[in-house]
Fold this protein.
Amino acid sequence: MSNNSSGTGHPILGIVLAIIGIIIVLLLGFLLGAIAGGIALLLGIIAVLLGISARKKGAGGKGITAIVFGVIAIVTAVAMTLGTASLMKELKQQATEKNLKIAQYMDKPYLGVMGILTGLPQDEASINEIIEQLNQLNDSSN
């Protein structure tokens, strides 16, 4: 069993976790909103803590890198979550102003697109009506 007294494994793990967090929030942030943001935020915090721990154990530059990537993951998570929630609120407001049926299913802006999809009706007539309204909205904006 090797003794990892310099803590070199901690910063590398921190860097990997932070990068995974950044990727999750950038790829899934709009779809999953706060869920993806929360995961990325947690991974970023863990990365920062691992970087601080590694710095205390003498890992130097790798510890700083883990901290920097962790902070980037945290900032990206917060920005994407707030941006997605703001965008979804704006979309709901526009849908409400145009009396679109989909507006009543947009009660969870913090969940991004998934918040809409989980609230949609399951019957074909309602779905077709929503699709028709969205097509009309798209045609009027072009």
Summary: The helical segments are 9-32, 34-56, 61-97, 112-119, 124-141.
